[in-house]
Amino acid sequence: MDKKVFSSKLRIEQVVLVVCIIMLLAIILQSGITGLLAKSNVEKSGTMLLNQIESVINDNSSREDSHTEELKETYVSYAKTIAYILALNPDAVYDITELKNIAELQHVDEVHIFDTEGTIISGTEPKYYGYSFDSGEQMGFFKPMLNDKNLTLAQDIMPNTAEGKSMMYTMVWSPDNNFMVEVGVEPHRFLSEVEENSIENVIRHIPVVPGYDIYAVDLSTYEIVSSTNELVLDSSLISGFAGSMSYDESGSNFGRIRHKGEEYYASYRKIGNYMIATVYSMNESSVSRFVPVVIMALFMGLAGLVIFRLFSRLYKVNEEEARQVQLIREYSRTMSSAGFGMWHIILKDGEAPRMQVNGKMAELLGIEPSGMTEEQIYDSWYERVSPEALDSVSKSVEEMLSGHFSENTYRWNHPEKGLIDVRCGGTSEKKDDDSFVLSGYHADVTNLVIEEQNQKTALSEAKEAAEAADKAKSAFLFN
Predict the structure, then answer these.
(1) What kind and span of H or E run contains 185?
(2) Which of 108, 217, 402, 441 is least surrounded by Cβ atoms within 10 Å, i.e. has the fewest?
(3) CA 99/CA 95 separation, integer angstroms
């Protein structure tokens, strides 16, 4: 970092003011964003609850319908069995005791015998004798049997004509078509399951998080028929809300309602003959919004204090950092002036090796690094290492990776000069991400190698000449 950069220092007071303004704006922005997110989350949560409720209600309804059909098939089978037994034993048709025995064996509560005109003439309940298909809506359901003796009918659970008891009736003709047999069952367990799976019971037992409540409103009366917490909102609120708010019957709706000085978010949907509403108190929402804003303010205050301390110390360390950077630059310039290029090689498992170079190193490699990736720079160096030098280069890399300094002189194929002699030296450092960074220098020592070879040659020739002279001298003396 140049001294020029540090010549214009910011005043700490100005920095602190800027930080405070940024913190204030961040808190205001955080509050607004939190409010929008809270509303969005309430709507999404409400829609999710409605989806779950509708799914449970539809599943229960489907199971109820399926169970009803199974019961009808079973009781039709019982009715046919009883009709067959009575056809084989005509005396039992008017024998109440025998009819009750047959009913018990077939696990039914009532057996009624109708004549061909649709009037009860016998059965396990004498008090029903004389009732006919014209006696009420429930019994009139079976009137089509008079016109079609191949017809078999099973009725849904409904109050019977005589006593208003919830019963399920099925009716068949006897095999000889002389009478009709009706069996009646009071399906206690099934009725209990229907009650347990009713929308009122489903809503009442849905677990909800604090702040949320669920209401089921009968659309014919706009009265609450079930809720998770009847103490929060009363029927007057829901009736006014449900009666005045328009809603899309094909999907979920979302709105705000006010009641007794408090405001609520409400997601609501028409399901069957009910409107199901999930209600969330905006006071609860405000509390949930306030907490993160306070946390944000505390965090920003702490961050501001840290920033203040950092800026207070920054000017103390900048000059030292600038001095170190300047020393590094001077060292790099000195090395470049001496013909040495500087390089870094990054090695990491699973990734291609990368190479970073300074200007002198790029010049020595004969490349223009501005148009190349770090991987390409590495390849331009490694692929030009002379084949016979690959083993020594690999050995030097291994020494560096082991934490030692290594220097090697090897043959390298320059793109313009051809084969030259280069000398590289360096060491490595392991980083936190388990990568290794090899750092070092690179120089063209071709002339130096040639000079060393010439010196070796001259030395060898001088030695040979001395040996020859010594031999000549010895030969002269002996002669």
Answers:
(1) strand 180-185
(2) 402
(3) 6
Q: Are 185 and 167 in contact (CB under 8 A)?
A: yes
Nearest-5° Cα angle at 72, 66 to 77: 130
- pTM of this structure: 0.43
Token pair for 250: 């094909």
Summary mean pLDDT of the chain: 79
pLDDT tens sequence across 31-78: 666 556 667 777 777 778 778 777 877 887 788 788 888 888 989 999
- pLDDT for the residue numbered 103: 92
**Element holding 364 (H helix, E strand):** helix 359-365
pLDDT in the model for residue 311: 61
Region 328-333: mean pLDDT is: 67
Asked whether 78 and 183 are in contact (CB, 8 A), the reply is yes
Separation CA 2–CA 8 (nearest Å): 12
Cα distance between residue 50 and residue 280, in whole Å: 13
pLDDT average, residue stretch 256-280: 75
CA distances for 331 relative to 106, 308, 328, 338, angstroms: 106, 35, 5, 11
C-alpha dist (Å) from residue 424 to 213, 217, 236, 338, 391: 75, 85, 89, 14, 14
Reference 95, options 57, 65, 122, 58; nearest CA is 122
Tokens 């939190």 — which residue? 34
Q: What residue has token string 């004798």?
A: 129
- What CA–CA distance (Å, rounded) separates 471 from 261? 125
Which has more confidence, 457 or 128? 128
Q: How far apart are CA 146 and CA 154, in angstroms?
A: 15
Cβ–Cβ under 8 Å, residues 366 and 416: yes
Q: Which two tokens stand for residue 190?
A: 């099934």
Gap between the Cα atoms of 315 and 92, Å rounded:
113
Model confidence over 218-239: pLDDT tens digits?
777 777 777 777 554 455 555 4
Can you read off the two tokens belonging to residue 357? Answer: 């170079």
Q: What angle do CA 173, 121, 92 make, to 5 degrees?
A: 75
